[in-house]
Amino acid sequence: MQPDRKLRMGMVGGGQGSFIGAVHRIAAALDQQIDLTAGVFSRDEANSRATAARLHIDPARAYSSYAQMAAAEAALPADQRIDFASIVTPNNAHFGPAKTFLEAGIHVVCDKPLCLTLTEAEELVGIVDRSKLIFALTHNYTGHPMVRHARHLFRTGQMGTVRKVLVEYLQDWLMTPQEKLGSKQASWRTNPAESGIGGALGDIGTHALNLVEYVTGDPVASLCADTSIFLPDRRLDEDVNALLRFQGGGKGVLTVSQVACGEENNLRLRVYGSEGAISWEQENPNYLHLYRHGQPRQTLSRGNAGYLSPEATAATRIPTGHPEGYLEAFANIYVDAAEAIRRYVAGNPMTPAEYRFPTVHDGLRGMQFIYTAVESAEKGAVWVPMPSKS
Questions:
Q1: Which of 166, 242, 314, 388 is most buried (most C-beta within 10 Å)?
Q2: Any long-range contacts for 268-271 (C-beta under 8 Å, 24+ apart)?
Q3: What gap in Å lies between CA 336 and CA 357, rounded to an integer?
């Protein structure tokens, strides 16, 4: 029997000045399954304490470090301690908290990309696999109902084999040197010490790669990448173009940029299979375009239980015509992770095949993508094999 209560969440990061911390808190609270009960919200203790007060966190559970939080929460009685920790820090501060909470027996939800380095990612995979704890990675675009329907179409064979993929994620917010103008978000994303070896590659390229493999179920086998830096003094890629070869024989193109003038958050996926094709756009996420050779083009709409898959309808909260978007998709990751945690607590854990959310293995895949693309670019845009998907 699953616990008949809300799950208790602790948060690492997300203090004042953070964008993604607030998104995670809203997403976690949306379905009224989760309460935020503890946290260490910033390395700046004054910021952390102020954030905790604003969020009405018990001062006794507003901690000064993630290590203190993990130890103190693990020592509490089972009916009081947090069920999981949400990690919403920059990339270089994912591994330490994740490892510490997992080793304390506490489940984890972590923002992407998984870690700063591939070595860290591999170690986390080992810890999760040995402990059997829940580890959810917030590749939030997988939470959109129409993305889940597209996945259903490919996973059930209705679209045949993948022949061609076009995936793009284009933004323009780094057209100017925001990191020199006081932007906290730009500062860490353009700093290798905090972001890792990938700039746009890690920030949005991992989303693009994850979306392709999530929908098609066909892993990228090798890639040929070209990376660019256009602004003076930048040390990490701003723009990436990559050719893809898929395990099933298909070919693809992945392009991401954070200096594409006029683009806001243009994530778009087109997959052409032997039996049809789909097209989906993040900026208009409630619709999925479906194509069959020799037949009229179809536009499928979110909320239509009569023709959508159970996976899509389960991720829908309101009737068709009422738009759902970014926060709701994010919330689907949280509610799916919450269900897995409830099953674990009840002694009836899900198998990994039952998870509807991206896992630590998807996080490792993202890190492998970053490292493979950087290797390809540094060698002069040559073909480099991707590791086999675990």
A1: 242
A2: 268/166, 268/167, 268/168, 268/169, 269/150, 269/165, 269/166, 269/167, 269/211, 269/212, 269/215, 270/165, 270/166, 270/167, 271/150, 271/154, 271/159, 271/162, 271/164, 271/165, 271/212, 271/215, 271/216
A3: 6
**Interhelix angle 145-155/206-216, nearest 10 degrees:** 50
pLDDT of residue 3 exceeding 70? no
Both structure tokens of 375: 């290797």
**For residues 167 and 208, is the Cβ–Cβ distance under 8 A?**
yes
Strands (E), 197-340: 220-228, 239-246, 251-257, 266-273, 276-281, 287-291, 298-301
CA distances to 53, 158, 268, 289 from 271, in Å: 47, 13, 10, 11
Half-sphere CA count of 93, side-chain side, radius 13 A: 19
Q: What is the pLDDT of residue 1?
A: 54
The number of residues making up the chain comes to 390
Pairing type for strands 107-110 and 135-137 reads parallel
271 forms bridges with which residues in the sheet?
Answer: 165, 278
Predicted pLDDT of residue 289: 98
State residue 232's pLDDT score: 94
Residue identified by tokens 């990612």 is 121
Q: Residue 389: what pLDDT?
A: 84
Domains of the chain: 7-141+333-359 (3.40.50.720), 144-317+366-385 (3.30.360.10)
Q: What H or E segment, with its residue span, contains residue 159?
A: none
Looking up tokens 């905790």 gives 52
**Which 3 state secondary structure label does DSSP give 76?**
coil
